[in-house]
Design a protein that fits this description.
The complex is a heterodimer.
Chain A lengths: L7 H16 L2 H8 L1 H7 L4 E7 L4 E7 L2 E6 L7 E5 L2 H8 L7 E4 L4 H19 L11 H25 L4 H6 L3 E7 L5 E9 L2 E7 L9 E5 L2 H8 L5 H6 L3 E5 L1 H18 L2
Parallel strand pairs in A: 1-4, 6-9
Antiparallel strand pairs in A: 1-2, 2-3, 4-5, 6-7, 7-8, 9-10
Helix pairs in contact in A: 1-4, 1-6, 2-3, 2-6, 3-5, 6-8, 6-10
Chain B lengths: L5 H13 L22 E5 L2 E4 L4 E4 L14 H12 L9 H13 L5 E5 L2 H16 L3 E5 L19 H4 L2 E4 L4 H10 L4 E6 L17 H12 L2 E5 L12 H5 L5 E4 L10 E5 L4 H6 L10 H16 L2 H22 L4 E4 L6 E4 L6 H12 L2 E2 L14 H21 L4 H4 L5
Parallel strand pairs in B: 3-13, 5-6, 5-7, 7-8, 8-9
Antiparallel strand pairs in B: 1-2, 2-3, 4-10, 9-10, 11-12
Classes of the chains: A alpha+beta, B alpha/beta.
Amino acid sequence: MTSSASGTGSLEMLRAWIYVTGVLPLFEDLVRYDGETQAAIAGRKLVVQFEVRHGPVAHLDIDAGAIRYGPGSHPRPDVRLRFRTPQRLNRMFGGEQVRPGLRKGFRHLRFLMGGFPTLAGRLSYFLEGEGSHAVEADDKKQRFLVGLRLRALLGGTAVVASHDDWLSDVAEHTPAGKLHMKVLPDGPEGTLEKAVHNGKQEFVASFDGVIDHPNVVMEFTSLDAAWRIVNGEASFGEAASLGDIRLAGNILLADQLNIFMRRLVSVMGF
Amino acid sequence: MDIRYEKSIELFRRATRVIPGGIYGFKNPMTNLPGASPYYAERAAGAHFWDVDGNEYLDFLCGYGPVVLGHCHPDVEAAVREAMAAGVCWNHPGKEMVQLAERFVELIPVADWAVFAKNGVDMTTWAVRVAREHTVRSKIVIAQGAYHGALPWCTGYRAGVTPEDRANTLEMRWNSVDDLERIVAEHPGDVAGVMLTPYHHRYAAPQEMPADGFWHAVRQICNREGIVLILDDVRAGFRLGLHGSQEIFGIEPDLVCYSKAIGNGYPIAAAVGTDDLRSAAEAIFTAGTYWYSSVPMAASLTVLRILEETDAIEHIKRLGSRWAGELERLGVERGFRISVTGPPGLTYLTFDDDPDLYLMQVFAGEMIARGVFLHPYHHTFLTAAHTNEDIDRALEAAAAAFDATEQAIDHTAAQAASPHF
């Protein structure tokens, strides 16, 4: 799958890719932490699929009080939300009232009109709004917020590296390898990997915890330190130089991946 | 953070408020060992420097190469003081520009003329323009991973660089004559120049010497295709021989770029070329407000004189050979599989089973902690001011650093995560 990111329209497509494949997975974490999100999906069992014309497709499987993200099409989605343009999807994630094309799932219309905007609103609340302030938060909330940000950062970076034509040359020149980020002493953590299979490159973010053979290790020395960095209050370079990050391993890989991270922040504002 | 660097870190903290990133470019702490290396220096003399916290170091980097005679060499400083007393920025060049051009023409076999600027990239970029003007072609071939400066056409750092900036820069693998043949065939009649360093001094990787016959083959292709062969001798020039690196490696370039060692730290760069390219060189309008200053030219004239009159270059090579040989022995004795690559004085240590440089980071950190400033990713630069006693001290530190590296393998979090030990 490719997208062009050389003009305004294609930037919108890049944002759509980030929302659909980098932000939607955050609902998995959101529902585990947030009571309002849990209430919004209580008793619901449905698969909602998001489709952008000539762009990304992914689905959310809502069942038994949990949300699972799935890349690509689901074999039997209950609802198919089709967006004719990336702008429409992006506006929806930005909190505007947007009515996507409903290909399937009219009987879930009520949830789609009321429930899903609640989910999107809660995510926005924790990512950018009032709920995103971690400094005075309790440990549980701080861990949640840092984890959410870390996941947004690594997931979004993988999307940028995969789909941003502006940086396609950088992506091509990035060495294959894994960057492991961990907040000391006991997480959250995640990994961003460039893999090459049969000459084809792939950027993937994963959050499984255990990682074999990382090429770069980036350890945040505390939750506070991690928050300042994933929240954009300090750059990685400054944080490492001031002792908030311990960095070891393949510095060239870290340098290259940092370019995508900066691009993510400039494109999305988070 | 190491309390040895308290003032460095405090300065850096202030810097982050008023300078993007605190320190930009290759002197940013991230490009070294953040927290385990000084960020700001205060003074230097001979083969030593002191950071703002008062820590003293034996210098194995020497300003990233320019300091070839030692910091604050008295003769160079005297020449600079005399030149400065006459003014530093005139409306016209001074006599030193002519004298310096004459020196380069005397010293460099292929040089029929010379021009001057401030930094290596001024000259590599200028050389590209001369090649294009001469050939009326667009493309420039460079080696993958080579450093010719930090401008968009050649930088490996892609932030702020458009695909169009790089569109005329093509990359071949070092030592691959096949790659060069393929590129030339894919761009018939459009390759203006091939720019290569005398050997491949890559960052954070083993240094690669030219394969037997490589330079001869490159020259043959350039002759056959009417391509200008540009030697980027900015880093190694005047460190391996008084007549440039082409003498050492048997290269016959059309244009050669110099900087670093020719000024012992003063900002000066030079390019020399053959008569065939004189007309193209004359056609290129290029200038910088400070490019004509006599002060760094006076420094350069003195440096070239000292290099010619003393055995400075041979001294550096002798010390460099000793350092490389004994460093390798110390590592091997402790069971490490290591390589010390690069010509004498310009060597880089790599642990063979450690491509991500975890071990090198520990080793360099241990060296710095023991007062020997060894860069984890950059090859060394020794100077005429280094002594055998300095090498003794560095080797003593290296023995301890190897021991500490061995112990660290089992104990640091980052190392535990690495696949290599």
